[in-house]
Specification:
The protein is mainly alpha-helical and 366 residues long. The protein has 15 helices and six strands. The strands form two sheets. A three-stranded mixed beta sheet has the order 1-6-5, sandwiched between helices. It has a three-stranded parallel beta sheet with strand order 2-3-4. The chain is elongated. Bound molecules: tryptophan (TRP).
């Protein structure tokens, strides 16, 4: 279930996934599935946030592999790369330029209060500038592409709020017109095997490429309360029931919860039910994922085409932003020109701006 204002035809969806491991059920429920569904309805930019991953990733080969994992997952979920631009964040350098500009507007006390930053530091991660400015980069992702709709898990809601805040600050400071995005939040995050948020960091995930056997074994590891048989259990708040809710209809989940609470069935049976539900729902996805993941050349083609489209949009935003902020050489005023000529000049100016830093050779945009 998601919350937020209704979707409009003119919405632009921006959504990122961090390539830190094979996608798991938490990613599936929080970002991948909602994004894939919405990408059928509105203009969408779905990207793999490799720059964000670099806050923790230290193995280049592995990072590249995980980028492909995420792209394959999006395709396996039926995202049509002709409709939605699927790209790699680091292929669109304009994002980093906007991140710097937004960083010049972001009060550090605000960033110090960001949940993700506080959580990481409280877990003993020694903070870097990259980790600290993580939300600023995320704001740049969204604003560079003119995003208005951002499907995220609950833990990312605050980052979207910060994005709105930074857009407002930019608009106020420079008389800009960056649109303010709204979050579309998957209301019930899926818990991990130990009941905490499902996260690679906690080692409590069910990856989407787990075989049926592996999946069932993981489900059996889900922590349940150890009250003696027949003692009343709080089934509603249990991890098994909360997980089941994402893969089975509400009516039958409630029945299961009641049977558990009444002591008519035990945890083992409930876990079997969950594993069965995953076999029905996730197994076909796994098989598509495995098949698609094999062809890295195809994945790379998808990423390049997506980058070209994202860059075209990013170039427009940055031309406006540069002009408002006074960055870069001024556009040659020349003779008075109409809006079409002006737009072409802007495009030309931009091609001059990024020649060396553009890692992707792009033969025209689509
Ligand atoms: N921070 C998000 C996460 O950890 C990933 C992300 C990066 C993102 N940039 C984004 C999500 C922009 C939505 C929009 O899950």
């Amino acid at each position: 279930m998601t919350s937020g204002a209704p979707i409009e035809a003119k919405d632009i969806l921006v959504s990122g996934i961090k390539p830190t491991g094979t996608p798991h059920l938490g990613n599936l429920v929080g970002m991948l599935r909602p994004s894939a569904r919405l990408a059928r309805e509105v203009t969408s930019y779905l990207f793999v946030a490799d720059l964000h991953a670099l806050t923790t990733a230290r193995d280049g080969k592995e990072l590249r592999r995980h980028v492909y994992d995420d792209v394959a997952a999006l395709l396996a979920l039926g995202v049509d790369p002709e409709r939605a631009a699927i790209f790699r964040q680091s292929d669109v350098p304009q994002i980093l330029e906007l991140a710097w500009i937004l960083g010049c507007l972001a009060p550090t006390p605000l960033l110090e209060r960001a949940h993700a930053f506080k959580a990481a530091t409280s877990e003993g991660v020694s903070p870097t500038l990259g980790l600290f400015s993580y939300p600023v980069l995320m704001a740049a992702d969204i604003l560079t592409l003119g995003g208005t709709l951002v499907p995220v898990g609950t833990d990312q809601r605050q980052h979207v709020e910060l994005t709105r805040d930074l857009a407002r600050r930019f608009n106020q400071a420079f008389a800009g017109a960056l649109p303010l995005p709204r979050a579309m939040v998957e209301s019930a995050a899926i818990p991990g095997l130990d009941g905490r948020k499902m996260s690679k960091r906690y080692g409590n995930t069910i990856p989407i490429d787990a075989t049926p056997r592996e999946r069932r074994a993981l489900v059996r590891r889900i922590v349940t309360d150890s009250s003696p048989l027949g003692a009343p259990v709080d089934a509603e708040s249990s991890t098994v029931i909360q997980m089941l809710r994402h893969f089975e209809e509400e009516g039958s989940v409630r029945e299961m919860a009641e049977s558990l609470s009444a002591g008519r069935v035990g945890w083992a049976e409930a876990k079997d039910r969950l594993a069965d539900a995953l076999d029905r729902d996730v197994e076909p996805l796994r098989q598509r994922f495995i098949a698609i993941r094999e062809d890295e050349r195809h994945l790379e083609t998808v990423l390049r085409a997506g980058a070209a489209r994202a860059q075209a949009q990013a170039a427009k935003t940055l031309a406006e932003v540069r002009s408002l902020t006074g960055l870069g050489r001024p556009l040659d005023p020349g003779p008075r020109v109409g809006p079409t000529t002006l737009a072409r000049r802007l495009d030309e100016a931009l091609t001059m701006t990024f020649p060396a830093s553009d890692p992707v050779a792009i033969g025209g945009t689509r």
